Amino acid sequence: MDDEIILEETNRDSRIQMNNVEFLRNNWSELYKMAKAVEENVETVCNISLIKIRMFGEQLTKKIRRN
Questions:
Q1: CB contact at 8 A, 25 and 18
Q2: How many CA atoms lie within 13 Å of 54's alpha carbon, on the beta-carbon side?
Q3: For residue 63, what are the contacts with CB-CB under 8 A and spacing of at least 6?
Q4: Residue 66 has what pLDDT?
Q5: How would DSSP label each residue in 17-64?
Q6: pLDDT per residue as tens, the chain (67 positions)
């Protein structure tokens, strides 16, 4: 029973934290899409998350260099 409660709280916390990248949505939609994919897949498809976070880092670096 206690394990079920902990699992439910963990899942709820994961859903709450899914908005960590919302601030990117308006100005950097490409970065937002990549970061959102990382958040959505981090617990289920780790390989995709690793690839997407690398792509995110590369794109972010390019945007910083341009400014």
A1: no
A2: 6
A3: 28, 31
A4: 84
A5: GGGTTGGGTTT-HHHHHHHHHHHHHTTT-HHHHHHHHHHHHHHHHHHH
A6: 444 545 455 555 555 455 788 999 999 899 999 898 888 888 888 888 899 899 999 999 998 998 6
**Own/partner long-range contacts of 1-9 (Cβ < 8 Å, ≥24 apart):** none
The pTM is what?
0.62
Chain position carrying tokens 């995110």: 56
Contact between 53 and 42 (Cβ < 8 Å): no
DSSP category for residue 67: -
